[in-house]
## 1
Amino acid sequence: MKKNFALKKLYYSISEVSKITDLEQYVLRYWETEFEQLKPAKNLAGNRIYTNKDIKLILYIKKLLRDEKYTIEGAKKLLKNYNTKEENNQTAKQTSKTDVHHENIKRFPSHNELSLFNSEEIQSNENLTANAPQDKALIGDLKELRTFLLNLLDEIE
């Protein structure tokens, strides 16, 4: 069966997860009782809703049990470190994104940081069009602001 991970969703039903992971639904339900890390949320109707993180965990459990031939008890012992490893990876990713963000901020010259809001530089719309150097400075500031906001959006997504 070909797995298509191209379409990313926030939440998946148990039937979708069953197809993605090639596991029966009853196996997924059973693993919830055995592995404390696997706790999908439930919607208002009481149906399980799985996140991408849940699916990664299920695939890891499947690999341990089916491919590496661990017992459920052996897999439980390995999974005790799984959450810590995942949290460390997430922290490292967030730290590197923050470092990049801080580097982007440092690149902006300090005299231009708030120039868009400086009332001395931007007197009025009429003066703005008549004053070519001021227009260039404003355009430069707008481009820097646009770049900054796009980088910020990329980090959020």
## 2
Amino acid sequence: MNENIFRISAALILFTAIAISSYFRLKADKDTGEKISRKVDGTAMMTVIKLAGLVLWLSPLVYLVNPQWMAWSKIELPEWVRLFGIGLGVLCVVLIFWLFSSIRSGITPTSATRTDHKLVTSGPYRWVRHPLYTVGSSLFISFGIMADNWFIAVLGILAFIAMAVRTPKEEANLIEKFCNEYREYMKQTGRFLPKF
């Protein structure tokens, strides 16, 4: 199959996910009139997130501009695996829309909560407390599979690890805000995957 099919699919999936995320994040800031400071997570964590985020976002863009620039990390995956990556990417876009539609104005760029934040327990939040971390990192892993590129897939895994490290602070903020309601919610849901 032509490499351009994978590049076009990857671009459509990536830019659709970015558009959905941007729309809901800007809408949340506008609806609440509240701009959350990124200093909440601390300088060290924000530095790691910014540097890692820069590499995370630039790598797929480099592949989209010219796949040869990323040839050093090519895997030589079978075509059917790369097609699976497209399917996984499409699923991630659908899940991104679902989770943003569910959390609405509660979304923030940090571990802080908004002043009037309500605990969301519907949509994917019915089963998972932090679906954005799982779906977002899965999106980058799917991009790595579509691009036939181990480096981009590994960046998706590292992004998940960074968010997992930040999650206890986020959950402490949520416990402080919602007290026993959040503790009960924790008992019924998984952190990143549904609890069985």
